[in-house]
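For homework, think about our next protein:
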Amino acid sequence: MLTPLQSHFKIIHTTCHTQWGGLEKRIFNEAVWMRNNGHDFIVAAPRNTPLLHKSRQNGFRTYEVDFKKSEMISDYRFLRRVFANEQPDIVNTHGNEDSRIALLAAYQKKIGCRILSRHISAHVRDSWYNRLIYKKYATYVFTTADYTTRHLKNVFNLNDRQVFSMPSGILPPDSLPSRKSAGKNLAETLGCPSDTRFIGFVGRLSADKGVTTLVKAFKQVYHHIPHHLVLVGNGPDAYREQLEKMTRDLEIAFRTHFIGFTDDVWPVYRALDCKVLASPFEGVPQALLEAMYCECPVIGSKTGGIPDIIRHGATGLLFDPGDADTLAQQITETLSRKTETQKRVNAARENVQKFHTIDVMGKNILRIYHVHHQLNPEKK
């Protein structure tokens, strides 16, 4: 029997998303890994987006598809032509708008392996149209969290051969800076004394990441800890303005820093004494996995796929979404009880290295491709 790495696949991934977050990182990291393992990877995404630019800069073939509702028919016809010309083995969609169009086009062009990736843990409504997407147009559904897998099984009566938990695998850097030098460099960048300590958030700066909960918690603890709060990432201007006003109203703006987007997040994680993700719903976030790999203590909300990787008291701490009081207590505990925190840090990094690297994710995906095409050789 052939192993997964002995087959060559042509894979087209689509997304309607326009930012550079965990979803886009996953597509790009998977593209790099698949190419390194002998497969052909193509990206279809909206024009002038970070994913499209980064894919082109790294030599991947790309197609511009904006996936706007006003252009659904023309996008659908365009994708039919793309699939007819490329003859891919696999089509994998990653967003609501592109899934509706690309899965239908792939189904009608008889692409045998059609995958819908569900990245968030928000519930999916049991409608006739969603049943069509999840049960007919999609051959398989990939989720990033066991929570989402259980939900989709229950709603659409999917079985273990139709839906798979496939958490994103991180692509670790070749090396990491020391925690001391990373902290010093971040402090100098922000114009702070070189011995300044930090806690923070790294990700998309938006309401669905629960950043306001973190800001409220920081207000409760900032008198008791020497740390500054750093918020790393881009998002809607209106939300950032709301957060900035909130820090001024709470009188913590002088110790709160909005850094904006950075392509190299690894030194930031190394500079943090605690990384917080307070989202009201999530899959398995790459930002937490990256922080764990960097030996940065983590605190996350008890929702979606976060408990898949944060085992409370073992690899991090969990709190109920929106509970700023408990989060404040856990920040203090993380910073003050260093022995217990270090044990959690060690266990978290070991877990990421064992289960959540891009190599682990890539091999798991290839096993599904391989089995599908062995069982359906005429559709390859």
